[in-house]
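Morning F.,

Quick status update on the modeling queue. The single chain you submitted on Monday has been processed. Sequence for confirmation:
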Amino acid sequence: MRMHEGGSEKISVCARRANAHTRAEMRTRACSQPLCVLASWAALLACARANNACPPACACSQDSGTVSCHAGGASGVPTRVPAWTSTLILRGRNVTTLQRGAFAAPNGSALDEAATLSLSGNLIRAVEADAFAGLPHLHVLDLSHNQLERVSDGAFKGLRELRTLCLNESIVPEAAAQLAAALGAGDLRDLHRLELAGNRLRSPPLTPAGLDAFQLLHQLVLVNNSIRSLGREDVGGLERQRRTRVYLARNPFRCACELEALYWWLKNASQCPDAALLRCAEPEARRGLQVEQLRPEDVDCLNENLEAVSYVFLGIVLALIGLVFLMVLYLNRGGIKRWLNNIREACRDQMEVYHYRYEQDSDPRLANVAV
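Structure tokens below.
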């Protein structure tokens, strides 16, 4: 049987058990040395066969170190994954919850050398704390195309060597805050690439302080989300991480005052490789325009604030004028009352004159005299 390189280290547990069993037999039965050696090697071979066996409904390739388990007769995380596995692919296995220690040795798997774990398309809804315990040397973790509703703060605990984390089309909007807490827990300090495309995120799930913890983050993919703008704090955090490249295409940006920080960041920095693909979705007059082609006055918060202040000032001035007018009326209420009475008397006298003339004109006797 061809053993994987370094196989003696990977079956050390089995070797220890076999040696202990052999020593016990030697002490109790005082057997001959050749028989004890044969028993020890038999135990080692049995453990090696168990470790190298391919799990049900999986395809194994020891040459490439790949174990691929797709939808089939079995579901969940497979047991007895070969010790030589460097790439484990689980798809369509209905792993709805990643429980604590799902890949640890008690599961029957010894994946200390696993470097890549793909869990794409498994309808995963929850990731518990210490779910990836037993994978200390994992470099790539793909959780894309799931439906994560609950992410524990310690979901990524122990993944000190993780380089790439893919969460494309996986996070429901309600779990964005939980994801931010899990990412900011300080367990992913060596992360190089973080993919969060297609999650309907309204803002990056990384606080400026949390972003500062990623000293080696080179790529942050936020394509096809619901981001309308980036605040000054978010932009300030990105400016401090000058090595980080941020991808923001296919987001519905609102090209108004709130886009000012992002606009000047795009103008002055070169951290957004897809800057030419950023388009305005609002307001209607600027729909489809490139963010980079906007004029500074289009996103000038100072002018907008001055305009708002001018309207407020005008309203205050008009209110003061109205108040002064009412005070004048109140202070001169006596004279105004006399003036109104005089006008009323004058109108009454004038109406009496008109009434007298009307009566004269309507009297037939006066009409005959006139004839």
